[in-house]
Specification:
- The chain is an alpha/beta fold and 343 residues long.
- 33% of the residues lie in helices and 18% in strands.
- The chain folds into two domains: 14-128, NAD(P)-binding Rossmann-like Domain (Rossmann fold, 3-Layer(aba) Sandwich); 147-342, Rossmann fold, CATH 3.40.50.
- Helix 1 (28-36) packs parallel to helix 6 and helix 3 (88-96) packs parallel to helix 4 (113-122).
- The two termini are 32 Å apart.
- This is EBNA-1 nuclear protein.
């Protein structure tokens, strides 16, 4: 069987590069690494005073290297995943300061001649995380042993990775046999392995999802990071391939409180939670007729504690299922875990 993906040996700790990105949703790699691997992040670097900030020390590449950093990670992803010309001075400075470069962009570091030449000159590495393994097969559709939970969403960049990581950690704390299965560059950087689903040719999406989550013991759970949304005008294809190939027993639907339109595409309204549940279950039944929805993961990061608790309670009553913010935790999250495990 094809291996999952090359296990990463990233040079740690990191300096996180934010470029000139002003929308936090496009800096989710940087935020994810800060939130799930803070001990490996020495600081941040941007090339614009208007760029988002992580609240980490602002360091030059030379300062970061002096504090022990071994690489700089491009922690942002613009539309199309391009390496911008405005970033090049900072990327070249990092190589000159003795840092390797790590990225998960669609534009690969090794395909950028100026970076290749600088890396060779300074004896540094260019590490592209979004590189699928070779020999991915087409999907078989055969049922695999073990249990699977897939985080799905109303949109991209609203908490599917955080939800999967939080559920995985909580299951482990309960003594449940579980693995986190990463499907995007940030998750792969955190986990050290995974499958870059949005870099795979569409005919092999479901096959890649099958080998990402192989057969396991009946009581083992694979908690699978979701990608995109079935309703996204650009990214629905990867969501469907992941849904069919992962054959989830349980989905958790992720949504950001207050978001009404697709990130970066304001002309497209988001679907309702009911629509999102219904479409994922209808399409998911193609490869797992027993698929069910365990509940809702609600990103309430822009709300106060009291506002978040009230909203979770009202949405739980309205939908008739658990609604929780996994990052806030609490009784709501415990009920969501119970529903995922036991129905």
């Amino acid at each position: 069987m094809t291996e999952l993906a090359t296990t990463l040996d990233l040079p740690r700790p990191y300096l996180l590069f934010l470029g000139d990105i002003t929308e936090p949703g496009f800096a989710k790699t940087a935020y994810g690494l800060r939130d799930w691997g803070r001990e490996q992040c020495v600081g941040e670097l941007s090339c614009s005073p208007d760029a988002v900030t992580l609240g980490l020390p602002k360091l030059t590449p030379a300062q970061a290297r002096a504090q022990g950093a071994r690489s700089m990670i491009i922690g942002v992803a613009n539309v199309g995943g391009r390496i911008l010309e405005s970033w090049m001075p900072s990327l070249l400075d990092a190589l000159a300061a003795g840092l390797d470069l790590v990225a998960g962009m669609h534009t690969r570091l090794v395909d950028t001649p100026a970076l290749v030449a600088a890396a060779e000159r300074h004896g540094r590495r260019l590490i592209d995380v979004r590189t699928p393994p070779r020999g991915i097969p087409t999907a078989t559709g055969r049922k695999r042993s073990g249990k699977r939970l897939l985080a799905v969403g109303t949109d991209c960049a609203l908490g599917k990775k955080y939800t999967a990581l939080a559920i995985w950690k909580a299951l482990k704390k309960r003594g449940v046999s579980a693995d986190f299965r990463a499907t995007g560059q940030t998750g792969i950087m955190i986990a050290g392995s995974g499958m870059p689903m949005d870099a795979i040719v569409s005919d092999f999406e479901a096959g890649a999802a099958e080998i990402l989550s192989p057969g396991a013991s009946p009581d083992h759970w694979d908690v699978i990071e979701g990608q995109g949304s079935l309703f996204h005008p650009a990214y629905a294809a990867v969501s469907l391939g992941l849904l069919h190939g992962s054959q989830p027993d349980v989905i958790v639907v992720c949504h950001e409180a207050g978001r009404t339109h697709v990130l970066g595409l304001p002309e497209y309204a988001l679907p309702s939670l009911e629509e999102t549940i219904d479409l994922n279950l209808r399409l998911g039944r193609r490869t797992n007729p027993a698929i069910r929805c365990g509940g809702i993961s609600l990103n309430t990061s822009k709300l106060s504690e009291s506002e978040a608790r009230r909203l979770m309670a009202s949405e739980s009553r309205r939908l008739g299922m658990p609604v929780a913010d996994p990052i806030r935790g609490g009784e709501e999250f415990e009920r969501l875990l119970d529903a995922c495990l036991h129905g």
